[in-house]
């Protein structure tokens, strides 16, 4: 059949559309497939989103039904009932070790050349023991000369006494007058006085010679030696030896004004020198009556018995007893702080957390004591207090005190 004969003039556009439709039928079919593909993609995305929402809902629902959704939002907090504990008060301090009674020893005599040094640092000495020998050759001769002068004076005194005795026998016979007896008596008395002066001078020289040697003023431990053989020493030579009386040591513990006010003489302290790994028991024997105006600190002196590990000048720490208190104790995590001060959260019988201001006291390894604000019977939030607000509803999980 000849279709071209049916196309009339003036209908060229319709003929073209018919021709496009007939030729473009495969194009229409491709567009339909594209639309179906896009619908399939949107369906898959919707299913995936629905699955994600469902999983999220199941995870946050926690296995509860729809009616309990508000309860699932209530946080669970750990609480404890602290009770009241007896806590031994402790004050921690640091300071330097020193000899409790340091004895500086120098030359107290005329001085001279050192001929012998008999002790070394670390030696124990007794009272009066010679630490160093000073040359005394010149002083010894002076003492010998004075001893001879004593003999001369004694001889003169004996002659004067003999003359007086003779005069007393002659005065009765009238050969001499009483005035002569008076002169003989004065001569005898003067001679005896010269004997006493000579003997005193001799004793003085001998005492000076004895002071030439440097001796220990008391028993103790030699800490320093600042003199060598052949050195010339005198009264201005300074400290030649330094001793610790009885070997006793002490810790000069630096403490604040508040801590000093809590101490009393006689309380026990544990002192640990740096590097020794050992602790030594001592007692506070003196508390400084003066506070340093620059750092607001004072000194507590802790007496210690001798031990080789206690070296003067070394650094040490001390834990000093300061009495006992009875109060609730909480871990540091339970106590919050802000501009208004310290506070805790207490859970009431209705399960609501309330802010409670408190005052803290002693800080120990086991926790912090609460001196006011709690009586020990409350349920106190242990952790997560920083995420709570006053009046929040909470679920509690009781934890034993001290855990």
Which stretches of 5+ consecutive residues score pLDDT under 50?
Answer: 1-24, 62-69
Q: Portion of residues in helices?
A: 25-40%
- Characterize the overall form: elongated
Summarize model confidence as the mean pLDDT.
Answer: 83
Class inferred from helices and paired strands: alpha+beta
Question: Oligomeric status of the shown chains?
Answer: single chain
Radius of gyration: 53 Å
CATH fold-level topology of the largest domain:
conserved putative lor/sdh protein from methanococcus maripaludis s2 fold
Element-level helix/strand string: HHEEEEEEHHEEEEEHEEEEEEEEEEEE
| Portion in beta strands | 25-35%
- Structural domain count: 5
CATH architecture label name of the largest domain = Beta Barrel
> Distance N terminus to C terminus?
104 Å
Q: How many E strands? A: 23
Domain YknX-like C-terminal permuted SH3-like: 330-395
Protein name: Efflux RND transporter periplasmic adaptor subunit
Coiled coil: 181-215
Transmembrane segments: 41-59
In short:
Residues 181-215 form a coiled coil. This protein has five helices and 23 strands.
Question: Would you write up a description of this structure?
Answer:
This protein has about 400 residues and is α+β, with helices and mostly antiparallel strands. The chain folds into five domains: about 60 residues; about 80 residues, conserved putative lor/sdh protein from methanococcus maripaludis s2 fold (Beta Barrel), CATH 2.40.420; about 55 residues, no CATH class; about 80 residues, Orthogonal Bundle (Helix Hairpins); about 70 residues, Elongation Factor Tu (Ef-tu), domain 3 (Beta Barrel). It contains five helices and 23 strands. Strands 1, 17, 18, 19, 22 and 23 form a six-stranded mixed beta sheet that branches. Strands 2-11-14-13-12-15 form a six-stranded antiparallel β-barrel. Strands 3-10-8-5 form a four-stranded antiparallel beta sheet, with no helix packed on it. The longest helix has about 50 residues. The chain is elongated and about 180 Å long.
